[in-house]
Write a structure and sequence with these properties.
alpha/beta; six-stranded mixed beta sheet; Molybdopterin biosynthesis moea protein, domain 2; three-stranded antiparallel beta sheet; Molybdenum Cofactor Biosythetic Enzyme, Chain A; 3 domains; 4 helices; Molybdopterin biosynthesis moeA protein, domain 3
Length: about 240
Amino acid sequence: MVTIDEALDIIYATVTQKSRHIIPIEESIGSISAKSYNASFDLPRFDNSAMDGYAVKLADAGKEVSVREITYAGDAPPESFLEGEAVKIMTGAPTPNGCEAIVPIEDVEKTTNGIILPLNIKENAMIRWKGEDIKSGKTFMDSNEKITAYSLALLSSQGITHIEVYRKPKVVIFSTGEELKAHYERIEAHQLYNSNAPMFYARAKELGCDVSYISSSGDTIEELKSSIKEAMDADLILTSG
């Protein structure tokens, strides 16, 4: 009899690496990346505000300042602003030159002529810096990495539409035994529900395989041969019985 370790050695010696193909990133969930990917630009691409608030100078802490035009996400920022001024800014909007901190809207007191800033303003507060998440040239996805929803966010943030992955292994599952019935069928007192096949199916799916069932086989040699023949185009056949 072949031991479990011997059987695994045989399998590992036989398995070859799957071929590669390029697919849309939306179809790549659960696949394994076939190459590494580097950032082509910084993320964020520019310094920007982490909050709705005001771009300010530290020297104006505790003072009343006038408020300049609002900068929204997607707008070009003012080239600069002076002490005694604040630039109203929305989350994600680029910070103006000379901005030393962002003060959230809820932390200021509105006046007839502008706003009064809090006394304590921390330098660089609420500023998201260019390249803070990913630096240009940095590897953000390694080869042989499983693609997740987070991976898709990183890929799309770099404008990547397609990704090179390994083809998913094709796994075919069938069970043997006259006593077995599918979990959605009625059973008699002398029969059992097939719980192994659904477990194998779910586990193979978790591992990123392309999985399918074929009908359960009876216990005769001919029935087993028929089931195996039906599954021969698979990379891996899992049986239980």
